[in-house]
Design a protein that fits this description.
Chain lengths: 692, 692
């Protein structure tokens, strides 16, 4: 086996070449890279000076690291010397200027680099440049190698491991990039001591820093990453690259077996969070558009297929990607995709983490399938949102109950340099920005990250009978999110024959000592069609509250206090009706996000809130999807919901019976948190004929 | 030539059959119809009773007329007797019940039918059923024919021509459906006297009613239809079908030559309004999603290709359609599409109508090309909006300056039965809902349709130098929209080298006697990025005004009075910056649509307003598109605009010079409405180096 670069042999490069000019995933990636490189050849080598985040200089440096890697790789794959020369000339250009370049000014808690304001970007840069350099083996003179290694790589490595030694051993996604960059550069330049530091940490113990400690500590037993999918896909990128480099060049480490195949678990944990449209749910700080075409996800899928197994649901997901890793595993995956069925069963998953965890309830197949995310695990450190027992729901191609996501215009320079905006703390992280019950108009754990990090939710039940009677349920609770109040939530997806989409039955039990204000809130997308019952619209919009995100909400209108509410909205081609039964009379409000936002950092989105003042309360909600609307063809069906009313009985302290009255039939369901087994937790009787 | 149905010969049906199982436009239509019919065969024949608009019954009757036509046509095309039987059984089912069915209750000014609440739907029903019946020739027994003609067609025809004789001769899109339905049924059932009535009107004069009078009076010389594209595409459907029937069966009428080829002009006039993405601009009452896949548009395109010429821009448009007419002309068009280039030059067009008209300024090719619509023609009768000198602008795949469209949830039964909502008069039609200058916070012509119908705007200049120096301009004016105030607007699209998209330079001259309030308003889509300069956000949102649509606008915030304003927004992958110079200091406001809307009939959209109190004022606006943003890949470029400032000089009463100061250069442009020729109207000097 003759290596032609750190991660590619000659034979593998030839295998990859076989996909050129084909319409496979790998063929797509190759033609995109060719287009990028041909444009770059026309533009020539440009090594700019220093600039602000989001500036031309910043963007060009980022792009140049990609070019160094892509040009070297495609030079080898396509046997094109012009590409190899481009990679070489870029490296030489940086080697010329890097040593004498001054440090940038720090803009956040990250130490500054030279090319970039935060060292993280410089780690990413080195990793890409090192991979590219490894592929130029044999294309560079000894002088050129010396020039690049001493002028560029050495000062970078010194900066990372000496100047910022304090940052190198941090167990964090940034730390993972640091060790992967240093380790890969060490392997490429033959510096074993650097590789050891990267693997074992600066102290060589593998206990407090380095790649092995990162693998052990950064992910739960199930591979769950506490910051959420958005940062998980970012962390998995260096995780997979460095693992693959070590698997090839330090096979004795058995890296893919480490921690009970922790890397494989982590890849599966990430991928099981993906919505049917390929986007990641925006749990914790996250954009609403990050998807499986992210480079790290492409690599992770390929690595899983190559090093663990090409399991059917991952191959089905790969088929949704617009490209794959340019690597033998990408080639294998592309071949697997060609031979795989279009659709397959996607199992529901509970990602445990101690007593808590994150549940992913899934029903159906294909792009219009259903996926409910229920969060009852850890907080998520500095990127955590106060969203314990929060849910999001994706169905029929759209997120029906939405996450707001982060408040950040990433890389948009005029928006605070593209960094997190004040409204991220002020609104996006606060409990009221999510789909849950807020107590006393305050965020969970008082909105205190340190406190929240010490707590987590508890998953009490998890039942997957999707294949049996079309029912999936989860029950979670928290005792410590609010002093003196316990919250328990049951989320049930239930397929009923009449409709393409399952009902979402959402039961929240709030129990407090003394009197509290309980706000059941959710975020629908699209247009309100109608509130069933009288609705008073406000002429003048006033702010709802004074803090914890309430200061960013206007009240658009309300319904009088009642134990029953219903409201229908339209999003895309489908109607959804929210039906609520509340134990105590609740005032329902329609809200609008965007108050107290002088810099236009928030999106004007709708929220619905149902408010009760009581010691305890039980909210039983049914989200019924129905009908069809296509404006262009002027076609509409079933714009009214089918469900007439909800009746609720408390059979005991822990047993709740919910009866759904449809025009032609009655469906009845009970939950019993006290039941010993999961089989007895939920009882469902459907299809009884009504006798009136 | 053996007719197998009114519009199809055996040979033509064979030609159509040749497209089955192919991926041509016609092949697509055939497979969609097959799918529809196979579902219908499974469901069986269902003839329901009477129902509300948007109800199951209403929808089923509508669908059944389609089924009768489609099943007969596909039965002949695919030589499938099951389809022919389905068509027959549906006709027999209706013949069984129709005569004794009571009349519905009228819901608007339209007389009621039996199947539907408005007679219009019953006309459409008869037209489709008659075409289907014509194709069953030879498949029905004499008894069956007698049963269908006496039980179904005769009572319908009596209703249309006797009971509602007063409505039959109306020159209106409804009247066009009436004569087409009666004429086509008359041709199919061999009742010449009915055909004569449909062609010449009830009095036989061709002067006040009937198809010939409709052709002469409903469309301007240029084929422009006063109600706007949304109703034009609805009127063109019966226009083309009946014309084609007469061309075949009354060739002596030379129908396609009538009125200087008025039908061909009308088709071209409609199609030249289409945006690059295939949707129609929402001028006057219109949905924002109606597009060229509407059945009427598919037929019109095919008829133009077959009866006039398959001109390149229409073939390019046909290539964007997802189907075509199942007819020999559809087959010809599908063949033409296969052999046509993907993209072609789309010419700018001025649709004249007396002194006024509608200008369509077009630049570029392909899906990201640019299209500005400027309205300075007639009002549009009951569907007219008070939008004289209004503009909309489509560029880079999106409408950048938006039309609100109608306020109607078509066929959504819980929204006022799917009919026009009160907010259509209250907001959507009002001047402030458009992109223009509103005077004294009132709509044009006092919001009086009758007055507005007697007036129209005036096009003063129209210059297309797109091929020469990338400049297209139009100038229009009105003297009578407001008493004592004249308004003139210049819209200029100007390609400048630096950017993919042209600048839109928008100059409004308002001249009044006495003091007035001038509100320059426009509707951006997407997210506000930044107001350049200090912006005060309101905590509490108050209503802007008391009538003419102002009661539906909240004030979100404002900038202090100034002669210069700039604001950047992001929509899709592109930024747009609005730069304004105002002769007198203007107060700029950010507004939100949706106040005083207790029924949730309005969409919460943004508006920008710049307000001046003065006798006269000159607003010079530049809309600069710039940069790129893709959140998923976290890539952003050029989020700041390039244009530094605008300087304006009045060189004479009619000559205005605008200087655009960019960092590296100055561009200067002047308009002179007093210039004799269009060549001298606009002077442009670009690319001068700056001397400071």
């Amino acid at each position: 086996m003759q290596m032609s670069g750190l991660l590619w042999t000659r034979e593998e490069l030839a295998q990859i070449r076989g996909h050129a000019h084909r319409s496979t995933q790998l063929g797509q990636s190759l033609s995109e890279l060719r287009e990028e490189l041909d444009q770059a050849l026309t533009a020539g080598v440009v090594v700019p000076g220093q600039g602000e985040p989001g500036s031309y200089e910043h963007n060009t440096h980022k792009h140049n690291a990609k070019l160094i890697e892509h040009a070297a790789l495609m030079g080898r794959v396509m046997e094109n010397n012009a590409y190899l020369d481009l990679s070489r000339d870029l490296l030489l250009g940086y080697a010329q200027v890097y040593r004498d370049m001054p440090f940038q000014v720090a803009r956040n808690t990250n130490p500054p680099g030279k090319l970039f304001h935060q060292i993280l970007n410089e780690h990413i840069w080195l990793l890409g440049a090192s991979l590219g350099y490894s592929l130029l083996n044999g294309h560079l003179s000894a002088d050129e190698c010396e020039h690049i290694e001493s002028g560029l790589f050495k000062p970078m490595l010194d900066m990372f491991t000496v100047t910022y030694a304090h940052d190198f051993d941090r167990i964090h996604n940034h730390g993972l990039w640091a060790v992967a960059a240093v380790g890969i550069c060490g392997l490429v330049t033959g510096q074993d001591e650097l590789v050891d530091k990267a693997v074992l940490g600066l102290d060589g113990s593998a206990g407090t820093g380095g790649f092995l400690a990162q693998i052990d500590k950064l992910f739960s037993q199930d591979g769950y990453y506490v910051e959420g999918p958005y940062y998980h896909r970012f962390a998995i990128h260096p995780l997979c690259l460095f693992a693959e480099a070590l698997a090839r060049h330090r096979p004795g480490l058995n890296i893919y077996e480490r921690g009970g195949q922790r890397i494989g678990r982590s890849i599966r944990a990430l991928l099981c969070t993906v919505y049917p449209d390929g986007r990641f749910p925006a749990l914790n700080d996250a954009s609403r558009s990050m998807d499986i075409d992210d480079e790290g996800v492409q690599i992770a899928l390929a690595v899983h297929a190559g090093r663990y197994a090409p399991v059917p649901e991952l191959v089905a997901m790969a088929a949704q990607q617009n490209g794959t890793w340019v690597h033998r595993f990408g080639a294998q995956l592309a071949d697997a995709v060609e031979n795989a069925p279009r659709s397959c069963h996607i199992p529901s998953v509970l990602l445990a983490d101690g007593d808590g965890g994150q549940a992913h309830l899934k029903l159906g197949e294909g792009a219009r399938r259903h996926h409910l995310v229920f969060a009852a695990g850890q907080h998520g450190m500095g990127h955590g949102h106060f969203d314990l027992l929060g849910l999001t729901f994706f169905s029929g191609g759209r997120e029906r109950l939405k996450e707001y996501g982060f408040c950040r215009w990433l890389n948009v320079e005029p928006k605070f340099g593209g960094r997190y905006l004040p409204e991220n703390e002020g609104y996006a992280k606060q409990s009221v920005a999510h789909n849950l019950v807020v107590v006393d108009q305050a965020s969970q754990h008082g909105g205190n990250h340190r406190l929240a990090d010490q707590c987590h939710g508890c998953i009490e039940k998890f039942v997957d009978r999707g294949d049996v009677d079309g029912l999936i349920a989860v029950c979670g609770s928290t005792e410590d999110a609010y002093p003196g109040v316990s919250l328990r939530r049951h989320c049930i997806l239930l397929e009923i024959g009449r409709s393409e989409a399952p009902l979402l039955i959402d039961i929240v039990e709030a129990k407090g000592t003394g009197k509290h204000c309980y706000d059941y809130v959710f975020s629908p997308a699209g247009q309100i069609v109608r509130w069933w019952g009288e609705f008073s619209a406000r002429d003048t919009l006033e702010v709802l509250g004074v803090g914890h995100g309430y200061q960013h909400l206007w009240v658009v209108g309300e319904q009088a206090s009642s134990r029953e509410h219903a409201m229908t909205w339209l999003d895309g081609d489908r109607f959804t009706t929210w039906h609520q039964y509340s134990e105590h009379p609740a005032e329902a409000m329609q809200l609008l996000v965007g108050a107290n936002d002088p810099e236009h950092n928030l999106r004007h989105e709708k929220k619905i809130m149902s408010r009760v003042h009581a010691g305890s309360n039980l909210f039983v909600n049914v989200f019924e999807q129905h009908g069809y609307f296509d404006e262009a063809s002027e076609c509409c069906r079933n714009a009214r919901p089918d469900l007439n009313s909800i009746a609720v009985k408390r059979l005991s302290e822990e047993r709740i019976e919910v009866t759904l009255n449809f025009p032609q039939e009655v469906k009845s369901l009970s939950v019993d948190t006290g039941a010993a087994g999961e089989a007895d937790y939920i009882t469902y009787r459907g299809g009884d004929r009504r006798h009136d």
